[in-house]
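Good morning,

Attaching, inline, the backbone tokens for the sequence recovery test we're adding to the shared suite. The designed sequence is right after.
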């Protein structure tokens, strides 16, 4: 769920959600409407390359989820229900029939689709669906402590070790902090630091949704379940397996060479092509 680049968005618009919060989104391309929902520790602009690729066949509405960009705050009563209301407000405004979500955004997409039959097809890449506690929450106490004293790099490292792939979980905090400084530019780290509080609230919701995957029997849209062969995140295989069993209509697509960050970093054009083909077929 870590973003390592910042892009410039296209055309900015706003929609008002059910609780009065202003939600910002960017529009690009032409064709049938497609809403793109980003993951945690990221913003709509981080998916600009993927949105541009999809924009060749769709009008893409890349939403800045509440708590970042020019969208309103998460609010004291934040929950994933609010996120679903935000997506629903945008769908109602633009009449989009297609929906894509990555990581936590994939969880938002699945929850949205439970109660919204207006979407024809949806696609999710490694959605943040926790099965039997597979998405760890053990990092939260240390993370909250570091945030309270503004030790943002320490908080980021604690999250990256616990919630990252198995090889990251073996690293000592001091080494993880060095690696984060090396591989993520200062400007990008500052963006990430600003999203750390939102990341905490979003993962609390992931924990609250643990083992609720049977609810996705209610999803009537056709669903493309995507994952990377080199993700290294132990929750992914459990989530894909569980979702395949309960979704009324689904198809699985593996990208053998990709990791968790395929849509926003590793291979956005490749992921976009798979989404395009699925949405336009039949």
């Amino acid at each position: 769920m870590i973003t390592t680049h910042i892009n410039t968005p296209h055309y900015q618009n706003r929609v008002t959600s059910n609780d009065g919060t202003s939600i910002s989104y960017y529009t690009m391309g032409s064709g049938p409407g497609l809403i793109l929902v980003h993951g945690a520790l990221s913003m709509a602009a981080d998916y600009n390359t993927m949105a541009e690729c999809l924009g060749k066949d769709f009008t893409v509405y890349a939403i800045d989820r509440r708590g970042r960009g020019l969208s309103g705050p998460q609010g004291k009563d934040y929950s994933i229900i609010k996120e679903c209301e935000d997506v629903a407000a945008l769908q109602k405004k633009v009449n989009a029939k297609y929906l894509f979500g990555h990581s936590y955004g994939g969880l938002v997409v699945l929850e949205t689709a439970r109660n919204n039959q207006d979407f024809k097809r949806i696609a999710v890449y490694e959605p943040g669906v926790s099965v039997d506690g597979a998405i760890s929450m053990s990092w939260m106490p240390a993370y909250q402590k570091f945030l309270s004293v503004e030790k943002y790099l320490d908080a980021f490292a604690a999250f990256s070790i616990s919630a990252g792939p198995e090889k990251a979980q073996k690293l000592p905090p001091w080494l993880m902090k060095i690696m984060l400084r090396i591989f993520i530019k200062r400007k990008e780290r500052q963006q990430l630091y600003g999203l750390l509080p939102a990341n905490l609230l979003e993962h609390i919701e992931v924990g609250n949704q643990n083992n609720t995957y049977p609810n996705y029997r209610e999803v009537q849209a056709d669903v493309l379940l995507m994952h990377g062969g080199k993700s290294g995140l132990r929750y992914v295989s459990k989530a894909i397996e569980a979702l395949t069993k309960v979704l009324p209509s689904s198809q699985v697509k593996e990208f053998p060479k990709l990791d968790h960050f395929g849509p926003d970093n590793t291979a956005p054009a490749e992921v976009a092509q798979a989404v395009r083909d699925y949405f336009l077929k039949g």
